Amino acid sequence: MSSLVSDHQHTSLGGRLPAYDGRKILYTAGELPFNSKEFEVTLCDNKIGSSGPRYVTVGRSFFSWKIEKPTKLGLDVSSTAFVQAMPLIDFVGEILNRNGVINGITDFDYVKVCNIVLGQRYQKKLDETQVTNMMAITCKRPSERETSIHKIVQNNNYNSAKRANEFGIEVDYNPTSVLARILTAPVLKYYGSDSNKCVPNNGKWNMIGKSFQVGNPKIFYVRPDQVEAALQKICLQARAVQKIDLLLALLPDKNGSLYGDIKRICEIDIGVMSQCCLRKNVLKSSPQCLANVALKINAKCGGRNSVFADIPASLPVVSNKPTIIFGADVTHPNALDDSAPSIASVVASQDWPEVTKYHGDVHAQGHREELIQGLEDIVKKLLLSFQRESKQRPQQLIFYRDGVSEGQFRQVLEKEIPEIEKAWKSLYNEKAPITFIVVQKRHHTRLFPSDSNQDTGGNVLPGTVVDTKICHPTEFDFFLCSHAGIKGTSRPTHYHILRDDNKFTADALQSLTNNLCYTYASCTRSVSTGMALLSVSCLILDRL
Predict the structure, then answer these.
(1) Tally of CA atoms within 13 A in the half-sphere of 410 that contains its CB
(2) What angle do CA 456, 518, 384 make, to 5 degrees?
(3) Which pLDDT tens digit goes with each residue over 1-49?
């Protein structure tokens, strides 16, 4: 395509400089001097030993993959791993030496003459050391990241690009200034009297002097030397006496394989809840550590840690009538896996008006299928579960859907929402009052504070919401940073409302969404997305 443009721009193309999308479409800033025309493109073959020109079908070859600045790929290079440019034999030697095998790599001649080209994205899962190293490099303070972004934009010099001039595009090199509001954090209440109330400060609070409602767990302590056989035998013996509510495992170190084995055996083979923690942390007897473990155990055993002290103020619209809140996501296999199924998970609240307990459904579906299969039956099952737990049927439904790109909005509107409507109609014989919200975290928008409204790390304060200027001009969407940035630069969550039968005002929906981020049972901090979506993530991760 590059040859076609250079050969015919000032003749057949009438002086136009087209932009090609790499597939089937060629864009121009004005009309071409013809309606239809065929071009023959001659490409030179640079391979050694080739003779004469060759004729090829031009497609994605328009893009040069000789990468000097990885940012041109549209990748988030701040958190993307690239393979180091080096001789292939050295790379293989590093891998084999890491696994304790260092002989025999010189038996293959092709290994000796190959080099790894600069800029190749590493798509396999990183090990624990690599993740730690990447986080140390990529977690920049907000001021550093803002400066880095500004330098990249200036160095790329977009306004001098020929195609930018051709299409009349001018890029502002300065960040966009927007007006933001800081939402008030909800007051929380733990089990017992009003003295158990707490007001979060900068998105966090502590458990000093607090207690919570317990689920009455009965725990057997085990020390498995041989994980699978020991767990199976001990649980079988224990069940002969009484039901096991939870298995507490003290791990000797951060062993991902051992942790995975325990979770797999407990979840799949035995069918019992489990809680893992490091032995060294337990022996320290730190009140904060033990309180955090107690929070997790209590939630897994059916207890409730905290609720909103003022439910009508903290749950606008939801507190007016029985409401069920859903969260849903689909997790896909890694980029190099072409056969493993995707995992879909859906959770729904069960305890209106508190909205702190969730039941869920998780299942495998087709490889890399983003739309949730069998959603009608899942929603129907969770609606009936809500009725049993709350002793009443829901009168409105709120659905937070994670993992959907803007290009898939229409598919969701045409396929997933009708499935929800069918489930509601089959049970209640009426139209479903649905508020459907897409939650997006994989974007490149960052919010930097321009005044004193920042936390100790230099990030925007928890509860910062932006719904103008950088949002859609006609549709209902907003950016919300509900959590405090512990390390690096906070990433706001983008909420896009595809349907709203319950007639939320912007303030009410933003306040509700922010407050739901304070109900996560496993920590005493506000989190980046609401309890519904975090429950989805935990449901998937506990079963992977």
Answers:
(1) 1
(2) 160
(3) 788 888 888 888 899 999 888 777 888 998 889 888 888 877 665 544 4
- The answer to whether the beta carbons of residues 396 and 500 sit under 8 Å apart is no
Task: Say which residues have a Cβ less than 8 Å from residue 370's Cβ, sequence separation at least 6.
Answer: 330, 332, 342, 403, 404, 408, 411
- The answer to whether the CB of 382 falls within 8 A of the CB of 393 is no
Higher confidence at residue 120 or residue 497? 497
Q: What is the mean pLDDT of the chain?
A: 82
Residues 516, 362: Cα–Cα separation, whole Å:
22
Give me the pLDDT at residue 69, please.
Answer: 38
Residue 42: phi and psi, rounded to 5, are: -105, 120
> Measured on CA atoms in the order 11, 13, 14, 15, is the torsion positive or negative?
negative
Q: Supply φ then ψ for residue 251, to 5 degrees.
A: -90, 140
- What are the backbone dihedrals phi and psi of residue 72, each rounded to the nearest 5 degrees, phi first? -70, -15
A 10 A CB-CB count for 268 gives 9
Strand order in the sheet with 188-190: 197-198, 188-190, 306-308
CA-to-CA separations, 496 to 221, 302, 463, in angstroms, rounded: 46, 32, 17
C-alpha to C-alpha distance for 383 and 380, rounded to whole angstroms: 5
Burial track 306-327 (b if 16+ CB lie within 10 A, e otherwise): bbbbebeebbbbbbeebbbbbb
**CA within 13 Å, CB half, 68:** 2
The amino acid at 60: R
Helix runs in 45-161, H state only: 88-98, 109-113, 128-138, 142-156
For strands 464-466 and 434-440, give the pairing: unpaired
Model confidence pLDDT, tens digit, residues 120-164:
777 777 777 778 888 877 788 899 999 988 998 889 888 988 889
Q: What's CA 400's distance to the chain center, in Å?
A: 13
- Exposed, middle or buried: residue 465 (CB in 10 Å: 0-12, 13-18, 19+)? buried
Euclidean distance between CA atoms 425 and 431, whole angstroms: 6
Angle between helices 256-264 and 227-239 (to 10 degrees): 30
Residues 522, 524: Cα–Cα separation, whole Å = 7
Tokens of 529: 């997305």
pLDDT band at 267 (very low <50, low <70, confident <90, very high): confident
Retrieve residue 353's tokens. 């008006």
Contact present, 191 and 211 (Cβ < 8 Å): yes
The closest of 403, 413, 345, 405 to 374, measured between CA atoms, is 345
**Where is 248: in which H helix or E strand?**
strand 246-251
Give the bridge partners for 465, in sequence order: 181, 480
Residues 6+ apart with CB under 8 A from 317: 323, 396, 502, 504, 508, 509, 512
